[in-house]
Design goal:
With about 90 residues, the chain is of the alpha/beta class. The protein has a single domain, classed as Rossmann fold (3-Layer(aba) Sandwich). Helices cover about 45% and strands about 20% of the residues. The chain is built from 4 helices and 4 strands; from the N terminus they run βαβαβαβα. The protein has helices at about 10-20, 35-40, 60-70, 85-90, and strands spanning about 1-5, 25-30, 45-50, 75-80. Strands 2-1-3-4 form a 4-stranded parallel beta sheet, sandwiched between helices. Helix 2 runs parallel beside helix 3 (about 60-70). The relative contact order is 0.20.
């Protein structure tokens, strides 16, 4: 399984990358939204783990761009946001 991890927190990225690799998953990493979207649009990932707040492009805009391209990639959004509006925005994207 191919995983795209788009996360700007270096420590969290290393931890998640290690755990995913231990599960025999192939992991590519992007530390900003623009690079993350560029990788995502290649259409080769089974799942994308996307942080909400990123330098450059934010997580919801990455998800919207992926959906416009009709990519079958599943998306898991990481966020500390908990407001109802934020959840709706995430789900709508």
């Amino acid at each position: 399984m191919r995983v795209l991890l788009i996360e700007n927190d270096q420590r969290l990225t290393r931890l998640m990358e290690r755990v995913l690799a231990e599960e025999q998953l192939s992991v590519d990493v992007a530390h900003d939204g623009d690079t993350g979207l560029e990788l995502a649009l290649r259409g080769i990932y089974d799942v994308a783990i996307v942080d909400w707040m990123l330098p450059g492009r934010d997580g919801p805009s990455i998800c919207r761009a992926m959906r416009r391209e009709k990519l079958p990639t599943a998306v898991l959004m990481l966020t500390a946001r908990g407001q109802v509006e934020d959840r709706v925005t995430g789900l709508d994207s």
